[in-house]
Specification:
Its main location: endoplasmic reticulum. The protein has about 140 residues and is mostly helical. The protein is about 70% helix and about 0% strand. It has a domain at about 95-135.
Length: about 140
């Protein structure tokens, strides 16, 4: 009886052992791949070198302006938003300042007493403002 020898095709065999490449060579290859992906994504491969330079310059300027604006103005904007949230949640800075002044006065009071005192001060200020407004009308 004849025997049939089945051999695995080359594509089914385990990957051949590749020689170890240095980290620098693999980094260069990765950067080349990213440059290729960038050029293909934005269709830069069909532009001349001058057109590529102009496109990349405009892109660089826009990204640098965005990063500069985010680093300079975003922290202040976040602080303003935080202050507005504080105002909406806690009823304004008047009550907050009054509670802090009552607590800083050195009196031994509980938090409830401090809040009650600050609410009395705040309501008194609102009442005085309302009386002045009514007088003007």
């Amino acid at each position: 009886m004849p025997t049939i020898a089945l051999e695995m095709p080359d594509y089914a065999k385990a990957a051949k052992e590749q020689p170890r490449v240095s980290y620098l060579a693999s980094l260069v290859r990765w950067l080349q791949l990213k440059k290729y992906q960038y050029e293909v994504t934005f269709s830069l491969y069909m532009l001349t070198s001058t057109e590529k330079f102009i496109f990349n310059l405009i892109l660089f300027i826009l990204v640098s302006l965005l990063v500069t604006a985010a680093s300079l103005y975003l922290p202040d904007h976040v602080a303003v938003i935080y202050n507005r949230i504080w105002y909406y949640v806690h009823g304004g800075e008047i009550a907050y300042m009054n509670a802090a002044s009552v607590a800083a006065a050195g009196e031994k009071t509980t938090l409830g007493q401090a809040i009650g005192e600050s609410l009395k001060l705040t309501s008194g200020a609102i009442k005085a403002g309302a009386k002045a407004t009514v007088r003007e009308l």
